[in-house]
Amino acid sequence: MKTPVPDYLASVLARCDANDGGALADYIPELAHADPNKLALALSTIDGEIYSAGDDQYEFSIQSMSKPFAYALALQHHGIEKVLEKVGVEPSGEAFNQISLDSHSNTPKNPMINSGAITTHSLIPAETGELRAEKLRAFLSEMAGRELSFDEEVYQSELKTAYRNLSIGYMLRTVGVLESDPVDIVEGYIRQCAIKVTVKDLARIASVFANGGIDPHTGKCMLDRMVVRQVLSVMISCGMYDAAGDWLTTVGIPAKSGVAGGILGVLPGQVGVAVFSPKLDEHGNSVRGIEIMERLSQDMGLHLMEGTPSAQTIVQGIYYLDEQKQIRVYELRGVLQFTETEMLLRTIQQEPDAPHSIVLDLSHITLIHDVGRRMLLEGIDRLIDDAHEVLVVDPDGLFKAETTDLGHEVKHYANIQAIPH
Ligand code: GLN
């Protein structure tokens, strides 16, 4: 059996192929020469499986899809509070290149419009615009799993006509949001926009975000969970500029578009997606890209507001390890967030008070959130108070707790066979 997913993606592309609406971006001269017929789609699961269709090897410039990643680097380096002093998180309801500031704070409204993005570019920790763009290129390359490069033609072409972004830069320098030469910063920002990617690269990068900042291919933690959360929140509210509300209701995937024709989407805990088609609507978003994302969202239920309940399946099985029925094993699967841990503790609550051992088998747990850990530790203390012994099977060392809050030792085992009985 071959999975039908690639055929399904190809059929989504075929259905959108006839849509000829929109126009090529013309304010970056080089983009006006793009082939308007190019069409590509890629999807990556959070365990790193990538499906793609259409012109999936075709490289195009990342443009504004670089903005969430520059924001992520700034947040990771300076912390959320510091970055908030420079750039807000409110949807602007304005065009992406509006020359505007928030009237109260005198700072850019959000990091997805150009004024905010030029500011977050300046917060990437490196000395010059060129080095900051390079830092972002290296970061994206690591997540894409290959060395990305810059499109020098697109870069030079945008530089020549960068009047608007330069005026935004000067405005930001005037009010003190930018603290060094605005020309160097705007040039660095334009260079970051010229990083070349394919839809497969983007889907793979997006899957790191969908996976809470952990790269599914390497297991490496690329970003803190809180940073990922912050970036995705801003993507859902501001990523599609003045079409953000329409996007949230019809597609419901935190996303970011770029004027070369790409759209990147991250559905937390589920998938990373990327589409490409160069013709744009009046907001600067890919026309066919939007249609494809709408179909994916509708056909595959990929909408943020269609949360999938997982609490009911957290306890996969309950059994005795020994013939004397003294060791009861709770076999768990999935993630331990609030609702799953609540369900688990409610199930364990029904344990009779007899002094027997309770084993929590975490072998198939993929993630333990902070709240899950705290609730579990509290539950362990209460079980011990009821004269139970509690053992934890945790081959991947996810639980990361040696003692409970009351100082009880948490007994860890690498596998279920290691428990003496
Ligand atoms: N480089 C473009 C700009 O700054 C990116 C805009 C976009 O993709 N929306 O104007």
Automatic annotation (TrEMBL):
Substrate binds at residues 64, 114, 158, 165, 189, 241, 259. Residues 317-378 form the STAS domain. The keyword Aminoacyl-tRNA synthetase does not apply. InterPro entries: Beta-lactam/transpept-like, Glutaminase, STAS_dom, STAS_dom_sf. GO terms for biological process: glutamate biosynthetic process; L-glutamine catabolic process. Coiled coil: none annotated. It is an enzyme of class 3 (hydrolase). Its EC number is 3.5.1.2. The keyword Phosphoprotein does not apply. One of its GO terms (molecular function) is glutaminase activity. Keywords: Acetylation, Hydrolase. It catalyses: L-glutamine + H2O = L-glutamate + NH4(+). Belongs to the glutaminase family. PANTHER family: GLUTAMINASE. Homotetramer. HAMAP family: Glutaminase. This is Glutaminase. It comes from Acinetobacter marinus.
